[in-house]
Input
Amino acid sequence: MARAQRLTRRFPAQMSEAGYRRLKKFAGEAGLDEGEALSFLFENFESVTNGDNLPHRLQLHKAMLARRQEKS
Output
């Protein structure tokens, strides 16, 4: 039986409300806490993201962040 993963790093992170709600939903569905869910997602990043869609989605997200900063 595999041993439980030991989480060794903590870092302050800001998330949008929508992102945090989605993280909590994913973690709950997977039976993980939020930290374990984030570790899983980043450790398996290439296999859980769509390589064709990622650059486009990232570009859209950066544009949205730039618009927010211009309004501030």
In short: The radius of gyration is 15 Å. Residues 29 and 37 are 10 Å apart (CA to CA). The mean pLDDT is 91. Residues 17-70 form one domain.
